Amino acid sequence: MDTRKRGSTSEMQVTSIRLEPELKERLREISGEQGYQTLIRDVFWQFVEQRMGVDEVRPYSAEDRRSPSYPPLLSMSDIRATFRAIAQQHEQCAITGKTIHPQQMMCLGLTINGAIVPFLLGDSLSQSSG
Known about the structure:
Helix 1 packs across helix 2. Strand 2 and strand 3 form a beta hairpin. The protein is elongated, with a radius of gyration of 17 Å. Helix content is 33%, strand content 18%. By secondary structure, the chain is of the alpha+beta class. The strands form two sheets. Strands 1-4-5 form a three-stranded antiparallel beta sheet, with no helix packed on it. Strands 2-3 form a two-stranded antiparallel sheet. The two termini are 21 Å apart.
């Protein structure tokens, strides 16, 4: 669910960052054709969005779900890989919109776009099959 607008590189500011040579080489290997600078920007954006969005997490009400502007959340077909985790703060299920509470078991999913999103496994499976 990557919603940010990507500017052209001419609109960006130059910033210097020091990386270990081995880290830079591994980033190049991982990034493939997209380039390691793009990969680093994506990682930074994900971090910022995760931190900034914490205060905005709220459960979706039944009224929200009936609204035509109800956000199109992800489905399980958008998830490439999953692993179990324990929430350390309030999160929002990327599939159902439900609140995930601190210390609650959840899953983290790697999306087809490379984002890592939280979701509740049981609710998400029943939501995506219906």
